[in-house]
Specification:
The complex is a heterodimer.
Chain A lengths: L5 H8 L3 H23 L2 H18 L9 H19 L20 H17 L2 H12 L4 H8 L3 H22 L2 H6 L2
Helix pairs in contact in A: 1-2, 2-3, 2-4, 2-6, 3-4, 4-7, 5-8, 6-8, 7-8
Chain B lengths: L6 H10 L8 H12 L6 H27 L21 E9 L2 E10 L2 E10 L2 E12 L5 E10 L9 E7 L5 E6 L9 H8 L3 H4 L7 E2 L1 E6 L2
Antiparallel strand pairs in B: 1-2, 1-9, 2-3, 3-4, 4-5, 5-6, 6-7, 7-8
The chains are: A mainly alpha, B alpha+beta.
């Protein structure tokens, strides 16, 4: 997890908007990438990122230890993602695969072949499971830090990671058994 | 971040780490615009809030203790020896209705952390079932009923986690659902309800928050 300059955090805590602008510039791209992978929707991810940045500004004076800014700010982002995810809840089937706008040439042949199955599988995961998967495997945050961010025991993080990866791998297995898959339609 | 050599894991991680070229500039500009008009919340304000909450809780406790002294059979100053009536389950809420577009069956009796009953939301193919355990009434009259999620086919509701319904009495009554992710650090049902009772999605009315229900819900006293 890349650290934000503690001095900038202290200045922003005292209301320095220029300092906060530098922090926000540093966070925005990372936050948007993480929230998009959790929420699986660019519009929701943009809203979550915007809300997180504004909340960070508003709540900064409450942060007692500026050295803990990174974990604290990720926690705010995760809460914003949960809030946006809740806003998007519908009772129509939510397992449809939306057209991807990600470049097809990236990620290798294997990834292209399995993209639809993986997208379906990750949408089937709860937001809790998606969040640990993204924070750990995409944002490269160690499990212990993920536990701090989510305010859950580290064992819970490992458990969710295990469950999430098992479900994602199973999606690839399912893809290799088209006849069986067809039989359940 | 992984030592797993399973080739399927490699495919999953490769896919997860694909670059998507998100453009954060517009988000950043919108956020900074909003920051310009957003005051920071100073620590002293929070301390004041906590002090008020503690004072309010203390006042409630004093009233409850004094009130208990005057209950018949309580052994207090006005108590009279009597045969204790057999306890009757106290209704919290019961009804069959639609909330947030989903069919809901709710039946909850009891009080505090001694609630029994179930809530079924949605259908077998898309829904969840909650073994109800606790209830909380907010200062503004909203009723929160929560418990352990025993079944779920919804992506945002975790089986084994806490889930709740929040009912706002009125005409029409409003409702919204909460799930484990809304208060992930809660270690008990009541702590979960306390964790969501002041969150905007349970206090506000609108998309993503409380919305009118159709049908009727019978509420307890």
């Amino acid at each position: 997890m890349r650290g934000v300059d503690t001095e900038l955090v202290k200045r922003a805590q005292h209301g320095d908007k220029d300092a906060f602008g530098l922090i926000a510039t540093d966070l925005a791209t990372r936050f948007l990438a993480v929230s998009r992978r959790i929420l699986r929707d660019i519009d929701l991810a943009q809203d979550a990122t915007q809300q997180a940045l504004v909340s960070i500004w508003r709540e900064l004076p409450q942060l007692r230890d500026p050295a803990r800014f990174d974990a604290w700010s990720y926690r705010i982002l995760v809460h914003a993602c949960y809030a946006e995810g809740r806003r998007a809840r519908t009772w129509s089937p939510n397992l449809r695969v939306l057209p991807t706008d990600e470049p097809a040439a990236l990620g290798g042949v294997d990834t292209v072949i399995h993209r639809d199955e993986l997208e379906t599988a990750i949408r089937r995961l709860s937001v809790d499971h998606r969040t640990v998967l993204v924070l750990h495997h995409y944002a490269d945050i160690p499990a212990e830090r993920v536990a701090q961010i989510l305010d859950v025991p580290v064992g819970t993080v490992h458990s969710r990671l295990h469950h999430a990866m098992r479900a994602m791998r199973a999606a690839l297995d399912a893809d290799e058994r088209p006849a069986a898959k067809e039989a359940f339609r | 971040m992984t030592t797993d050599h399973d080739p399927r894991t490699r495919v999953v991680l490769s896919w997860l780490r694909e670059e998507a070229h998100e453009n954060a500039e517009s988000v950043l500009l919108r956020a900074l615009d909003e920051v310009d008009t957003t005051p920071q919340r100073r620590r002293s304000a929070r301390t004041d809030t906590y002090a008020k909450l503690i004072a309010a809780a203390a006042a409630v406790l004093v009233v409850a203790v004094i009130g208990y002294q005057f209950l018949p059979g309580s052994g207090g100053v006005a108590g009279q020896p009597s045969i204790a009536p057999s306890p009757r389950p106290m209704l919290v809420a019961s009804g069959t209705f639609r909330a947030k577009g989903a069919p809901v069956e709710l039946d909850a009796t009891g009080a505090g952390d001694s609630v029994t009953g179930t809530m079924t939301v949605g259908e077998a193919t898309e829904g969840f079932t909650v073994d109800l355990e606790c209830t909380l009434t907010a200062k503004d009259g909203r009723i929160l009923i929560g418990g352990d999620t025993t079944e779920s086919t919804m992506s945002w509701v975790t089986k084994g986690g806490f889930s709740a319904i929040v009912l706002k009495p009125g005409s029409p009554m409003h409702a919204v659902f909460g799930s484990e992710s809304d208060a992930p650090s809660a270690t008990s049902c009541l702590a979960f309800l306390e964790g969501i009772v002041d969150q905007p999605f349970t206090t506000d009315i609108g998309d993503g928050a409380l919305e009118p229900i159709t049908g009727t819900v019978q509420l307890g006293p």
